[in-house]
Design goal:
The complex is a heterodimer. Chain A is mostly helical. Chain A has 13 helices and 2 strands, in the order αααββαααααααααα. Chain A has a single domain, classed as MetI-like (MetI-like fold). In chain B, helix 3 packs across helix 4, helix 3 packs parallel to helix 6 and helix 4 crosses helix 6. Classes of the chains: A mainly alpha, B alpha/beta. The structure holds adenosine-5'-triphosphate and magnesium ion.
């Protein structure tokens, strides 16, 4: 009856030159990309083990909780650790609310106009500005113009200015990943924009927003330039293990700046101490990064559509 | 005296940027009837529904001219637009389960209007899921995610959500494209019962569905109303308009 239909078998069970090529490409791509993925692991692994081995003699609990002694050549890093926690925390308290609200406005409320396009462009460009430029801006705006002087609060504002653009961008990206039909469905049943954001959009983008924030925590902790001129100090005496040693209008020590000074300004610092300071800074960053990773895994498992 | 028409549209023109999607449309949609709208793709049917519940103004670049009144009140003057949208149930062709549980999907609208009492919500959820012919399939998994239902089930969930705020006008836009024929029939039966309580606007690509359900039928083409009449006349051998005759018989352009 159906004599005109071509045989299916011949086409499916023989490999043509073209399909062979396709499959070879598939394998090559898999291997090359796999190597790349492993290749970025190696430097990180080597770096961390090298640092830990060199730092080992100094890596003690005392090192974390003690104050520097002998003109930075002994003791620990407590004041710098607390200082970093101070500046990072206060910069977050400033940058996160502003950044997240700005991101929500840009993605959810702003109509597409030349003005919002300029704002968006400005934000993206600001995200690429080098930290030393932010530092100079911080000196001009906060230390001098606003009269805050060199202080924790100036340093925090400078770090906040530096981290804001990326927080805004990652917020808008996270919000934009929630499909628009969810929003229209809510509007159609009489939910306001804010109700829609609160009940549907934010719960499904919060992990993305937090990931962006955490990555900025790492940046704020690691950068030296923005705090160097605005609030970091070479040495400050505090009590060992004191959690509240600083006032906000005082200068403080900070890990990144401390590492910079003891490795370039102070002669004769024992090598393990240098490496141990680096390990603590790196540990700070890695701990926060692993938070971000856990969040992202959690988000993927919770993916609701 | 109560106005016989629930919705009156006068000289409605809708533009998206420069493209005009509706040209000078005027329609009277009678109370407690099923008003079917048919027309080829791109003719502006969905746009018409969006302008009735004023979600059109949330689309970028849209602009509206003309008047729409519901029960004699001009909707563009309404201040509480959320209440307006709650009076209108809206079902669009693509099924959208919100990323919430099945229960929360249906309870969403009442909650957004401030209803907190568990008992009331329970009743609403069960009633609406029954009306959307979904209750039997999901009654044991109300806690499961709405987005994990099958496409057809999600579409019925969308219908249940549209009914959950007890609308006075129900707009259905090709509601049955993702639903199997048997279930479609069950929902159609529900619609016929529902018109006792509400006015139903049914946009459909299935001409036969318009014929089965519509009291009135309106044929729209390229953003203009070609003909509005009772369904009997529209589907008769002599509807009085060649375009209508051709479209209804599927020999259109
Ligand atoms: N958000 C929008 N932005 C720009 N143009 C739009 C938008 N929505 C619809 N249009 C345009 O309006 C016209 C009418 O579209 P509409 O969706 O109302 O057609 P329809 O009759 O519902 O078609 P279908 O039967 O395919 O659903 C189309 O030309 C479409 O391109
Ligand atoms: Mg449509």
């Amino acid at each position: 009856m159906n004599n005109h239909q071509p045989e299916i078998s011949s086409a499916l069970f023989t490999a043509t030159v073209f399909t062979r090529k396709k499959q070879r490409m598939q394998r090559i791509v898999g291997i090359v990309f796999g190597i790349m993925a492993v290749a970025i692991l190696i430097p990180l692994f080597v770096l961390v083990t090298y640092l830990i081995i060199r730092a080992w003699p100094s890596l003690t609990w005392d090192f974390l909780t003690d104050v520097p002694k002998n003109g930075m050549r002994g003791g620990g890093i407590w004041p710098a650790l607390v200082g970093t926690i101070y500046t990072v925390t206060f910069s977050l308290l400033i940058a996160v609310p502003i950044g997240v609200m700005a991101g929500i406005y840009l993605n959810e409320y702003a109509k597409d106009s030349w003005f919002t396009r300029i704002v968006n462009m400005a934000v993206v460009n600001l995200a690429g500005v080098p930290s030393i430029v932010h530092a100079l801006f911080g000196v001009g705006a906060f230390v001098l113009f606003a009269g805050m002087g060199k202080s924790i609060i100036s340093a925090s504002f400078t770090l906040a200015i530096m981290t804001l653009p990326v927080i805004i961008v990652s917020t808008t990206e996270a919000l934009a990943s929630v499909p628009r039909p969810f929003r229209t469905a809510c509007w159609n049943v009489g939910a306001s924009k804010w109700q829609t954001i609160r009940t549907i959009v934010l719960p499904n983008s919060i992990s993305g927003i937090l990931t962006g924030v955490i990555l900025q925590v790492c940046r704020a902790a690691g950068e030296t330039a923005p705090i160097m001129f605005t609030g970091a100090v070479f040495f400050k005496y505090v009590q060992r293990g004191d959690f509240f040693p600083y006032h906000l209008n005082e200068q403080c020590m900070a890990l990144s700046y401390h590492l910079h000074t003891i490795s370039t300004q102070v002669p004769g610092v024992p090598e393990p101490m240098l490496y141990a300071t680096a390990v603590v800074l790196l540990g700070f960053v890695l701990i926060f990064n692993s938070f971000a990773i856990v969040l992202r895994v959690y988000m993927r498992n919770r993916k609701k559509w | 005296m109560v106005n016989e028409n629930r919705v009156e549209i006068r000289n409605l023109t809708v533009r998206y940027g420069k493209t005009i999607s509706l040209h000078d449309v005027s329609l009277d949609i009678p109370r407690n009837k099923i008003f079917a709208i048919i027309g080829p793709a791109n003719s502006g049917k969905t746009t018409l529904l969006k302008s009735i519940n004023r979600t059109l103004e949330l689309e970028s670049g849209s602009s509206v001219q003309g008047n729409i009144t519901i029960d004699g009140r001009e909707i563009h003057e309404i201040w509480n637009v959320y209440e307006l949208r709650r009076r209108i149930g809206m079902v669009f062709p693509l099924p959208v389960g919100l990323p919430l549980s099945v229960y929360d999907n249906v309870a969403y609208a009442p909650r957004m209007a401030g209803e907190r009492r568990r008992k009331v919500l329970d009743e609403i959820v069960e009633r609406c899921l029954r009306q959307a012919a979904l209750w039997d399939e999901v009654k044991d998994r109300l806690k499961n995610l709405g987005t994990m239902l099958s496409g057809g089930q999600q579409q019925r969930l969308t219908i249940a959500r549209a009914l959950s705020h007890s609308p006075e006008i129900l707009c259905l836009d090709e509601f049955s494209i993702a639903i199997d024929p048997v279930t479609t029939m069950r929902i159609e039966d529900v619609l016929v019962q529902l018109k006792e309580e509400m006015t139903i606007i049914l946009v459909t690509n299935l001409v036969q569905q318009a014929r089965r359900l519509g009291d009135m039928t309106c044929f729209i083409n390229k953003g203009r109303v070609v003909q509005v009449d009772t369904t009997e006349v529209m589907f008769s051998d002599n509807p009085g308009n060649q375009l209508t005759y051709d479209y209804v018989r599927g020999v259109f352009g």
